[in-house]
């Protein structure tokens, strides 16, 4: 097999460079001399995640499609911690991305099964307040393009960024209780009656008819007593400025010939 580099990362103080190779090895190099210092052995599949610790220059995290997550001491060429992402009844889940928290006490990973894995010190009590499955009801909905080639949501015919805040649902599309709906930005101050989505039956691409969230809230923000969105206000202001500028250009263009009618012409 021809060796290929799949990922490169510098450590925190730039003294070392770590490369992931498609033969499942990680190599630690001296960044000044280019000397190979260590071969890190442990992964059984390709690695596409290399993350350096935010302040400890010795620590590097690696994760790959084999479901393994390693914490390495790259100065010694040793692994200090190992986690395996085993999913009950489904085998392992490939790890697609990892990030450290700014304080270096936690790191979070996402896998091929849609899970968010959070590792760190302390207890997990704060994470028990939210349901295990959280999706927006608009996730994976089809998009279309209009005659101007703009992207629209197929169901509502609206631009996705102008749609109201989505509802939180589980993996089967069932909406969560209202206390969880307030976790969605834009729904923090909604009354309970505005946090209950409209349900309906929708045909899937396989022809199966399932019950899903089909409606967004229809009550205007003014009627709810909510503060208007700052982003929406900026968009409206920019549009107004553009309309005024276009109107001024058209007015000056139309007034030009009128002023020129009174000028004498050479015979």
From TrEMBL:
Taxonomy, superkingdom: Eukaryota
Matching Pfam families: WD40 (PF00400)
Cellular component annotations (GO), alphabetically ordered: nucleus
SMART domains referenced in this protein's UniProt entry, alphabetically: WD40
Alphabetized UniProt keyword annotations: Repeat, WD repeat
PANTHER family, A to Z: BROMODOMAIN AND WD REPEAT-CONTAINING PROTEIN 1, WD REPEAT DOMAIN 9
Protein name in UniProt: BRWD1 protein
Species the sequence originates in: Calonectris borealis
Organism ancestry: Eukaryota, Metazoa, Chordata, Craniata, Vertebrata
Gene designation: Brwd1_0
């Amino acid at each position: 097999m021809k060796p290929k580099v799949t990922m490169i990362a510098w450590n925190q103080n730039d003294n070392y460079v770590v490369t992931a190779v498609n033969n499942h090895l990680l190599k630690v190099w001296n960044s000044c001399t280019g000397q190979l210092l260590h071969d890190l052995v442990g992964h059984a599949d390709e690695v596409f995640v290399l993350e350096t610790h935010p302040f400890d220059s010795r620590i590097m995290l690696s994760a790959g499609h084999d479901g393994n997550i390693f914490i390495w001491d790259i100065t010694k060429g040793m692994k200090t911690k190992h986690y395996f992402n085993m999913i009950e009844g489904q085998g392992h889940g490939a790890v697609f991305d990892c990030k450290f928290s700014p304080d270096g006490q936690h790191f979070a990973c996402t896998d091929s099964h849609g899970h968010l894995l959070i590792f760190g010190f302390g207890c997990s009590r704060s994470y028990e307040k939210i349901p295990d499955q959280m999706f927006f009801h608009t996730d994976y909905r089809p998009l279309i393009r209009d005659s101007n080639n703009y992207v629209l949501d197929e169901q509502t015919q609206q631009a996705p960024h102008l749609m109201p805040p989505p509802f939180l649902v589980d993996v089967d599309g069932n909406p969560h209780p209202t206390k969880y709906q307030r976790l969605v930005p834009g729904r923090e101050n909604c009354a309970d009656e505005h946090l209950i989505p409209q349900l309906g039956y929708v045909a899937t691409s396989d022809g199966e008819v399932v019950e899903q969230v089909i409606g967004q809230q229809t009550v205007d923000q003014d009627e709810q007593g909510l503060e208007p969105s700052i982003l929406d206000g900026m968009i409206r202001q920019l549009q107004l400025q553009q309309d005024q500028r276009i109107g001024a250009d058209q007015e000056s263009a139309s007034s030009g010939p009128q002023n020129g009618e009174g000028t004498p012409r050479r015979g």
